[in-house]
Specification:
Length: 174
């Protein structure tokens, strides 16, 4: 019992130290939806929605926080489940919701936060190789101008209409 307690405490201390090191580029945990830190960027609350049979696209949402003093830019995204991945923006124009690809990427301002959410910025995983089932995950690599390549896991919510990740009930991890 004493040895198990020491081992568990040691593992917890090591995990906490790894998460605190911004150079580790820790991947998200699909069960806990842990933030991923890469330099001055923190990517948190990543999730996707399950797809219906025959769907050829899936969506990805997340929040990117830039605590640095310089802007960064999300240049591109690749994933394990799609032929291509596009960065998109949805916005109202003349009373109609328009969705446009951002082929030149998306600026992440210094000291700013960009939230990918329904009706706003989002990722489109295009040309799905398979359906996204509830509880599954999409593994993606985000390529930033300054932070470089960052592995992020997008766990699938339980419902097609999910507005937030299931693992935290929509609450942000601190």
């Amino acid at each position: 019992m004493k040895y198990r307690l020491v081992f568990c405490a040691s593992a917890l201390i090591c995990a906490s130290a790894a998460l605190a090191d911004p150079q580790m580029n820790m991947p998200a945990d699909p069960q806990m939806n842990m933030p991923v830190v890469a330099g001055a960027l923190k990517i948190e609350n990543a999730f996707t929605r399950p797809t219906l049979g025959g769907a050829t696209v899936a969506v990805g949402y997340m929040t990117i926080v830039n605590s640095g003093k310089t802007d960064d830019k999300l240049l591109s995204v690749t994933s394990d489940i799609s032929a291509t991945t596009e960065i998109h923006e949805s916005k109202m124009a003349g009373g109609v919701m328009e969705m446009n690809e951002l082929p030149n990427g998306l600026a992440i301002p210094a000291g700013g936060t960009i939230t990918f959410k329904p009706g706003s910025y989002h990722l489109m995983f295009v040309g799905l190789k398979q359906a996204v089932k509830p509880g599954a995950a999409i593994h993606a690599t985000l390529d930033f101008a300054k932070a470089g390549k960052v592995a992020v896991t997008f766990p699938a919510a339980k419902s097609v209409g999910a507005m937030a990740p299931d693992s935290m009930g929509g609450m942000k991890m601190q």
